[in-house]
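[agent] plan:
  1. take the single chain provided in the ticket
  2. run structure prediction with default settings
  3. attach C-alpha cells to the ticket
  4. add a short note for the reviewer (M.T.)
[agent] executing step 1
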Amino acid sequence: MTTIDIADLDCVFLTYDEPNREENWVKIKNMVPWARRVDGVKGSDAAHKAAADASDTDRFVLIDGDNIPDSDFFNLQLELSNDSSCVFRWRARNHINGLMYGNGGLSIWSKQFVYDMRTHEASDGTAENDVEFCFYPNYYAMYDCYSTTYPNASAFQAWRAGFREGVKMCLNKGTRPTISEFQDRVHHRNLDHLTIWHNIGRDVDNGIWSIVGSRMGTYMTMITPTWDYRQVQSFDALEELWNTVKDSNPEILAGRVANELVTQLDLPINMMNEAESRFFKHHYRSNWHNRGVMVKEIDVIRNQEGW
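[agent] step 2 finished; step 3 output follows
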C-alpha cells in the first residue's frame, strides 16, 4: 500500500468553451497555485491526452472547466494498492438541481491510463464511446463528494448540460432501449436522476434551459426514432440543434413535450417553481456525509443492499 498526498500531484484545469472558465480559472489558481491549464482541445480523447502531457507527475488531478473543488480535497491522502494505472472519480454537486453524482466531478488519472485509453473519436472530435460511457475495470466511481459543478453560466451551456443528461440517462449500457423496455431496462438511479433534471432548477440562472434540454434529450432519444442518439457526443451537432430553439420561449418548450414524456414513458413531470426548487435542493440528501476519500460507490451500494 502506498500513501500519496493529493497536494503533491499536478492539477490540470481542462476547459473548452465553458462561459465561466476564465472566472473559474482565477478561483482555481487562488486555491491551487500549482494548477496548470489545458484549453480548447477538441474531443474527449485528445483533451485528456493533452492534460496528461501537461502533468509532470505520473498521477494528476483533473478539474473540468465548470467545476469548483472544495479546498479541503487537497488536504487528503490516497491509499493506493499495486494497481498504479487506476482512475478515481468523485461526485460533484450540481448547482442547477442539487444532484450529486460523478458527472463533472473531480478525478485523478494516471498518465498511462490516459495514453492507453481509446474512445474511437472521429476526425471532428465526435466519440462513439465517450469516456463517461466506457467501463474500464480499473476506473473507480467513488462515493464522496468534493466539488460543485456550475453548468449554467449561459442559456446554451445549461441547455447542453441538460440535453446530454436527458439522453444519457435513458440509455442501457450505452444503447437506446425501446419504449416498452424503458422502465425495466434503465437503471432506477438513472430514472431518479432523469426526473430531477426534468423538473428542478428554476431557482438559478438559466435553470429553465437545463430543464428544457433534459426533456428534449429524453424526447428525441426515446420518442424520435429517426434521431441518432449518438450525436449527443458531438458538440457541433448539439450547437446546430441549439440554434433551432435558442430564440424560443423556454417555458413553452418545456411544456411542449411534457405530455408525451408522461403518457409514453410514464415519467413524472411536475416542474417546480423557484421556491419549490430551492426547498427540494435544501432537503435533498440533507443527511449526506462523506465516508472517506477512498470509499468506492459500489462498496456502499453493496453494504446497503446486503450483497
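[agent] step 4 note for reviewer: Residues 120-134 have pLDDT under 50 and may be disordered.
[agent] ticket updated
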